[in-house]
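hey can u check if this looks right to u? its 196 residues, i copy pasted from the old doc so theres a chance i mangled smth
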Amino acid sequence: MNEDNTWHSQPETENCLEQLPVRQDRNKDQEQQQEADSIQPLQVTPEQNKLLESALRIKIMHALADKPLTSKQVAEKLHKTPGNIHYHIIKLFDGGLLELVRTETAGGIIQKFYRSKATFFRSGNFSGFQFRKEDTVEHFVTRLSLSPAELKAFQQEMMKFISSWESKVTHGEEYGIDVIIGRLHTDSLIEPEDGP
């Protein structure tokens, strides 16, 4: 209702509002595709793979993914001691998994800012975890029918989900997560018989 107490329909405004979510969905789809294309695992050597056999080092890699930080800043972010984090950062840097972005001097103290080269890794030498039966917490098995585009989207969603947990500040024991995705050959599957 306007100031003169009359109703005015505004079809042009309504149409614009109805179209806005569609544009947002298209932009969201484009952003997701760009993000999916940008997540590429870094091929690591056996030595680098060994360096990454620590949940804390994986968290450090994630902490240094967005912007360059000092070891003290990473320690504050992860609620760890600066000395402990500095030790791991030097190991990761010496192993070629971090890059030194810049060095600053503040009050006579040299501050080194590092950035991770990746947060997803691929190693030809990793053959999976071998869990003892009493250490196995959960074992999931399922089957999905996926087109190549759906498979890629599924992989990206899985990587994003795992990354979100790798990035969190968590406490407790370390657990291994081993996800394998493989194509099944349909000729080995039993086909249902036709009717009675």
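The helical segments are 11-38, 46-51, 55-63, 71-78, 82-94, 148-167.
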